[in-house]
Amino acid sequence: MAFFVQLLANYAGLIYIALIVGAVFYFREIIGARQDQQQSLYSLEREAANNRLWRSILVLGLLGLIAFATFILSTVVAPQVLSDEGRVTPTAAFKLPTDTPTPTFQPTPTRTPRPPTSTPGTPTPTLQNAATEEPTPTPLALPVLACPDPNAQIVAPVAGQVFGGEIQVRGTADAPSFAFYKLTLNGPATGGVTQTVGDVVRAPVRDGVLGAIDPTNLLSQPGVYVLGLVVVDNTGNELPHCTVSIVVQAQ
């Protein structure tokens, strides 16, 4: 229904032109039929001219009804249908977890130092007295966050949050001349290229659910991913992007 109404609104001008051409043609038919009625000498000719007259009047009235219906659909119905479609809001896939898990790291092998070479007059230490070196694990390096515009904010997930299941995104995506927003992702599974995740949403959201991301394709390549929010206004300009770093880890 929405597609048909939008198509009719886009080609309303061409429909008006075709109706005008048809109206001019049948208006000339009416004038010709009236002249034939006045000039005919026989009743059969006058009856034929009368039939042409009424047929042309009926077709002319039908063209007028089509023009009126096109005007109503293109100026009243089409904007209403499109505005109703824009009010669709994304639904949450599941509730946001209340506690934030911390990243875990794989244990590193313990290195045992080689016993020192004994020198004359120096006792040789035994393995029981040798200290065991345990290197400190290096945390994952997370990119710097950036959410400079209050109309494009991600409040959940938070930086460094670990996911092994569906990722629910909450925050704000709004603008004075809002057009749409989208979620992006950049990480090992995308080859280091920022890609759009999910569908473009054309309804503004303020302090609510922005969308959900299925990490099925990400679990095979775990690591640090940069989650982004892009808000675009009616002029095509993008607000400053909001980004947050998360960790995808296979369970």
Sheet of most strands: 5 strands, mixed
Radius of gyration equals 37 Å
- Please estimate the helix content: 25-40%
CATH structural class of the largest domain: Mainly Beta
| Molecular shape | rod-shaped
Question: What string, H for helix and E for strand, traces the elements in order?
Answer: HHHEEEEEEEE
How many distinct domains?
2
In angstroms, what separates the terminal alpha carbons?
45 Å
Which band does the percent of strand residues land in? 15-25%
What is the residue-mean pLDDT, rounded to a whole number? 78
User: Per CATH, which architecture of the largest domain?
Assistant: Sandwich
**How many beta strands in the DSSP annotation?**
8
CATH superfamily of the largest domain: Immunoglobulins
Counting H and I runs of at least 4 residues, what is the number of helices? Answer: 3
Low-confidence stretches: 91-98, 100-105, 127-131
Q: How would you classify the helix and strand content by structural class?
A: alpha+beta
